Here is the input.
Amino acid sequence: MTETLFAEAFTLWGAATTWLEVGAFGLALAMVGCNIREIHWGWPLAIVSSLMYVALFWRSRLYGDAALQIFFAIVALWGWLQWLRGRRGDGTALTVSRLTRPGLIATVAACILLWPITGLFLKTFTDTDVPWWDAFPTAASGVGQFLLGRKYIENWLVWIVVNVVSVGLFAYKGLWLTVILYTLFIALSAVGWRAWRLKL
Here is the structure.
């Protein structure tokens, strides 16, 4: 089974693309489509896609991104529950909202704080050759995932930044289908931002 997943499906720009990457690509696109439309079935798709990317990123020595996918799979369970039964602090149903000014400050501070901590961990305890660039999308994605789970529109802005950095990172690693995926994610994040703005 493992041999089939890592078997070459086709070559893209001189690099082998595995069946595992093809499957994860398709599920990830479907997941974002569900997120844009506020369809809760995007969360289980996120779980499966994330677990597939764990294996893909680990094989490419992107340990931060591999760990991030495990985190995504766990948080997706929480996000699914939030979208099905979540409430705001005042007891109202969880709907698309904006962060308050303190919430925005906390979001930026969390990204700034988590990046060097994650980078130092990767540099010290793994053999990754890109600890700091692997660390940034890892750290910021955790923040974006929380915002998405709580239906804050600013999650889409976080994802745009994360996806731009990730495109460069995955290009460096020769994961070209994933580069295409994250380029599409940039555009889809902009679509998500516009779609959710109409719900405010």
